[in-house]
Specification:
mainly alpha, MobC_2, Plasmid mobilization relaxosome protein MobC
Amino acid sequence: MEEENRGRKRRITLRLTAEEFAELEGNWKNSTVRKLSDFVRRLIFGRKFTVYTRNKSMDELLEELGLLRRELNAIGVNFNQAVHRLNMLDHAPQMQAWVMRFEQDKERYFTAVAAIELKLVSLNEIWLQ
């Protein structure tokens, strides 16, 4: 606020291409500075300001983990249904069919868990660099 009260009377006119302005505006919007003029002043005079950055690998990880979470939830629902039906069945042929289905779901579950484990190992390697 005190910078605005100094009575700035000098003006600098600067022409930019659309690409240059888009880059400047993008950098400004990723910073904590509220006004573009204040952002440009800080750049010109070498003053410090905070810039937010996004980690694309983390974004990809979160997206992939979201998909895996939905998959694991669906498998969990299938497990609950299988256990409920196994408890209700009294015929051996029906039970055998449910046991086979249970084995398929178990394999899907372990595949999903292995995928999570691989992703976590790769994330760990990225962060250790």
